[in-house]
Amino acid sequence: MTTQHRSLDDLLLYRLSRVVGVAGGMVIRLCEGRFGITRREWRMIVVLARRGELGSSQLAEHAQLDRARTSKAVGSLVEKQLVSRVARVGDRRQVLLDLTEAGHALYAELFPLVTRINAELISALSGEDAARLDQILHLLQAQAERMVAVAVLPKADRGRRGAGGIRPPSSRSP
């Protein structure tokens, strides 16, 4: 890739998004079609399976989700009886989240399927290329985190997409 971008296909984030869109779509179909959960719920199940009991804020942080989306997904997972809320001993105001037996069973069945999809995708690379890709992804993740730490960006306002659409820059209020 060159540093002078001529089209959308030249942009790294777009290319990564396309790979995730295609291969990740298989994971989404498994999650939603076969297991009745969203990809966000799947991410939270994986975090709880790997880390054990967590508070909602900790779960949001480890799953890299905002608290509002985490709260909504937790409610759905509790309703589906995949996650339980347990009051912390000594402080009933603090609630810990954990997988139920059904949540552990879902994880045990789905994780190998997702692992297979990932393994099949990476099989297009040699062992050396796969190791190099892993190193590159670590470098890109660290760079992205550095960029976010210093970026001054406006807060996303998804409400604008609805009825009014996107306002041109000149009509935005200061």
Give your account of this protein's structure.
- It is a single chain.
- The chain is mainly α.
- It has one domain (9-150): Arc Repressor Mutant, subunit A (Orthogonal Bundle), CATH 1.10.10.
- Helix content is 60%, strand content 9%.
- It contains 6 helices and 2 strands.
- The protein has helices at 12-35, 39-51, 56-63, 67-79, 101-122, 127-150, and strands spanning 83-88, 91-99.
- The chain has a two-stranded antiparallel sheet with strand order 1-2.
- Helix 2 (39-51) packs across helix 5 (101-122).
- The longest helix has 24 residues, at 12-35.
Oligomer class: single chain
The CATH superfamily is identified as Winged helix-like DNA-binding domain superfamily/Winged helix DNA-binding domain
If strands are numbered along the chain, what order do they take across the biggest sheet?
A: 1-2
- Can you tell me the CATH architecture? Orthogonal Bundle
How big is the Rg?
20 Å
The computed structural class is mainly alpha
**Main sheet overview:** 2 strands, antiparallel
Shape designation: globular
- What's the structural domain tally? 1
CATH topology: Arc Repressor Mutant, subunit A
Q: Helix and strand string, N-terminal first?
A: HHHHEEHH
Per DSSP E runs of 2 or more residues, the count of β-strands stands at 2
> What is the helix fraction of residues, given as a range?
55-70%
Distance between the termini: 37 Å
User: pLDDT under 50 segments (min length 5)?
Assistant: none
Q: Which CATH class?
A: Mainly Alpha
* Share in β-strands: 5-15%
Number of helices: 6
The average pLDDT score comes to: 87
